[in-house]
Amino acid sequence: MTTPPVGGQGTAGSLPETPPTCYRHTDRETWIRCQRCERPICPDCMNNAAVGFHCPNCVKEANRGSRQTRTPYGGQRVADPRLTSFVLIGINLVVWLLVQVTGGRTSALLYKLMLIPDVAARPLPDGGAVLAPGVAQGDWWQVITSVFTHEQPVHLGLNMLALYFLGPMLENVLGRTRFLALYLVSGLAGSAAVMLLSDPNTPTLGASGAIFGLVGAVAVVVLKVGGQVQAVLFFVGLQLVFTFTIGGISWQGHIGGLIGGVLVGLAMVHAPREHRAAVQWTATGLVLLVSLALIVARAVALS
């Protein structure tokens, strides 16, 4: 081993007479060099590495080649892409339990939460009935609370099973915020279609509109990446056949949610990289505003 010369003296083969200075802080002398580029660095510029130290520039270059922190369509990548779906499933389960403990199909809470365009007859435990107000009568929150409301356990189970499989897939490619926006806006688009096209005195409930929005968005993503298009189109077609052939299903909510999900999905997936966020959120906001405008217009007409 050699030691720095004392008093600025040196001999052949020893360290230079003048100590090098940090390449970022030229007024600071240092004997430490970056392990990668070998440039001199002062203690303020040192970054611990597996072997030795790295300078800020080398750390920055290394980070560029590391795993991306953004999803393919601009969202923030998350550690667990299932979390949002689990939270949504949890909310639906809690609401279902509250409905069951307050009377099930005769629950006053049920008729406060599900979507009634105008008014509907709520059955009473004694066999009678009372009128329950809807959106046109001022219960405007029903257009979103109905998306989280179920009465039949089979209905709840099928919707939550679909959310369990489709949700994480979309959150993984869109990011948490964009996925949640897709879900909620699709649900509202389904509510708008119910307000416009269904019997104003028939209640509607369930997450099916939001789920159909996820189905539409998955189809958009698969078409974009060149995946199994035939399988996705067959699945969408099968869902539509069930919608129009099985009694008791709100085809209005399904179609509205599907259209909303396709429109938001197209904006999320096909937005240009240069202005991606602006295009995505502007288009999503437009779908939301149109849905709300249709809801308000129908409510005013009914009232």
In a nutshell, what does this entry contain?
The protein is mostly helical and 303 residues long. Helices cover 54% and strands 5% of the residues. It starts with 46 loop residues before the first strand and ends with a helix.
Q: List the domain count as a whole number.
A: 2
Strand content: under 5%
Distance between the termini: 92 Å
Q: What is the helix content?
A: 40-55%
- Helix and strand pattern: EEHHHEEHHHHHHH
CATH architecture of the largest domain: Up-down Bundle
Number of H- or I-type helical stretches: 10
Total number of β-strand segments? 4
Topology of helices and strands:
Blueprint: E1 47-48, E2 53-54, H1 56-64, H2 83-101, H3 108-113, E3 119-123, E4 129-133, H4 142-145, H5 153-174, H6 176-197, H7 208-225, H8 229-245, H9 251-270, H10 276-302
Helix pairs in contact: 2-5, 5-6, 5-7, 6-7, 6-9, 6-10, 7-8, 7-9, 9-10
Question: What does this molecule look like?
Answer:
The chain is mostly helical. Strand 1 (47-48) and strand 2 (53-54) form a beta hairpin. The chain starts with 46 loop residues before the first strand and ends with a helix. Helix content is 54%, strand content 5%. It folds into two domains: 15-66, no CATH class; 83-302, Rhomboid-like fold, CATH 1.20.1540.
